[in-house]
Amino acid sequence: MAVNEREQVGMMVAGMGIFYVLFGVSMMFDRSLLACGNLMFVAGIAIAIGPRKATEFFFNKSNVKGTIFLVGGVILVLVQWPLFGILAESIGFIMLFRSLIPIFFELLQKLPYVGRIFSAIPMLRFILPK
């Protein structure tokens, strides 16, 4: 299945959003970097899968709790409680994307150098798919 330009741009924007969030955390929970990263991540997902599918995904009955945590975390970051905001966002992210986590780890295992690191760490053997 080929990836079109819209999906590529969306994944690039979402990836930059994740980078901004990680950079914001490393800069002692810088509120502006965290807020910018949050907006870029959500916008990137919406661009990559389309607005209708994004709305259906985030407001699906099984994903509402994760969406509430994610949005609540963004609001906490914006009202200058970045530590609690990042914790809430992390919980929401895990709740929303928990079915994709094994696929992500499987992808990491197939990378040339990273796969060796993952197979060398005993604790990760329990987490990774067989």
TrEMBL record:
The keyword Cell inner membrane is assigned to this record: no
GO biological process: endoplasmic reticulum to Golgi vesicle-mediated transport; retrograde transport, endosome to Golgi
Single GO cellular component term: Golgi membrane
Subcellular location: Golgi apparatus membrane
Membrane topology term: Multi-pass membrane protein
Transmembrane segments: 9-26, 32-51, 63-84
Alphabetized UniProt keyword annotations: Golgi apparatus, Membrane, Transmembrane, Transmembrane helix
Recorded family membership: Belongs to the GOT1 family.
Protein's name in the database: Vesicle transport protein GOT1B
Originating organism: Vannella robusta
Taxonomic lineage from the root: Eukaryota, Amoebozoa, Discosea, Flabellinia, Vannellidae
